[in-house]
User: Fold this.
Amino acid sequence: MISALSDFALPALVGHGPAPMGFLPPWLDPVHILDNPALGFWVVVIACAIIFAETGLLVGFFLPGDSLLFTAGLLTSTGKLPVNIGVLLILLIVCAFIGNQVGYVIGAKAGPAIFNKPDSRLFRKEHVEHAHAFFEKHGGKALVLARFVPIVRTFVPVIVGVARMNMRHFVIFNAIGAVLWAGGVTLLGFILGDRFPWVQQNLDIIFIVIVLLSVIPIIVEFTKAFLANRKANKA
Assistant:
């Protein structure tokens, strides 16, 4: 399936072939969203709104953040996106940062209302305590890595808000994650531009590899925390 998907990769950005994300509906296809000369600078506003919604609003979990960032950088490199790369990077990083801050506030505000109720099978105070302990110990790495995992990056800041992770720590790692994700992926698209045909033709594979590499450390950390908790309970 991956090899089939790669047939739909980035040749459209340089004027050849179908849309790069052929497995996405047109209204979620980054090229369909961004490569519209009639919108002018409004395309940048739309890109920023999507990044904010995906990282800050729970309803934005389905939005194509990774591919949109890379495509925005690539279109800027080829001159199809009417914005300076420096301005684009700053705008996207700021939106990604603010988005996670909003998610944290949503979790912090909604958490007490949910978990102050009598315990149920789903919402238990002990889960909040475990989450708080985990994010106080491993939260920095988890926050940064979660940025690169679709869907996960939408819900993690809310969970962190519910768990009441130290705000200062959250702000620091939120900023680091925003720079590495929003800035890094966009800059990667800009640098590669249309210089490397293999990258353009296998964009979907690159995104899958990025997600897999990001998920592995998260799985390791959760496994270590689970085993340590299990060992403590046995003791």
